[in-house]
Amino acid sequence: MKKGLLFVLLACMAGFAPAQDITLPAPAKTGGRSFLETVNARHSERSFVKRELPASLVSTLLWVANGYNRADKRTVPTAMNKQEMELYVILDDGAYFYDASKHVLKLIAKGKFKEALGQPQITLNAALTIVMVADLNKSSIDMARISTGYISQNIYLFAASEGLGSVARGSFDGAALSTVLQLGSHQAITLVQPVGYLE
Ligand SMILES: Cc1cc2nc3c(=O)[nH]c(=O)nc-3n(C[C@H](O)[C@H](O)[C@H](O)COP(=O)(O)O)c2cc1C
After folding, report:
1. Of 33, 85, 134, 160, which sits with the fewest C-beta atoms within 10 Å of its C-beta?
2. 171 CA to middle of ligand 1, Å?
3. Cβ of 29 less than 6 Å from ligand 1
4. How many angstroms separate the CA atoms of 169 and 140, rounded?
5. What CATH superfamily classification does 3-14+22-190 receive?
6. Is the distance from the beta carbon of residue 171 to the nearest atom of ligand 1 less than 6 Å?
7. What is the pTM of this model?
């Protein structure tokens, strides 16, 4: 059995605390660095100090990444407005689904899942990692990968605007993570991206 999968099974068997969703505060829609300063500051960071992000920053980060900025459309474009991308979040205490329409983090499972993300030198100290997931019933994987780029860049830009660090990660164990996130066969993980405080 693969190491990642074994870890996931052991974590699931360990019996964690009861389910708890996280209701996010309203995202900030003003503030931050100027656009040009933000673009100038964008870069990849792989080394973080362990510290939780306040709910206000988690809220704005997720809204920037893939939230709704109009009644039925989002901060990132998708081909033919298919909106095939959804975000999942690995926090210290568990795995969550970002329900963008309700702006809520819905608990999938309590547990220590950061190790399932791989590259521990990057992810263990990050405040959270966003997992980008495509619904292949809505769009092709080619279009989903393009949408993923928009989401990833929005995350990078928000991190740069707030003085946080982030790095796109194409290197991950898709099978182990899919098990943690309880994904179906029509769903594919396209990228993972930690965000955290800088040293
Ligand atoms: C699709 C994609 C996948 C990437 N995968 C990884 C990865 O698995 N691990 C990593 O440390 N960096 C990864 N990176 C970050 C790149 O190494 C980084 O963007 C590049 O070195 C340029 O540096 P910059 O982002 O600071 O401009 C990835 C970047 C992209 C766009």
Report:
1. 33
2. 9
3. no
4. 21
5. NADH Oxidase (3.40.109.10)
6. yes
7. 0.92
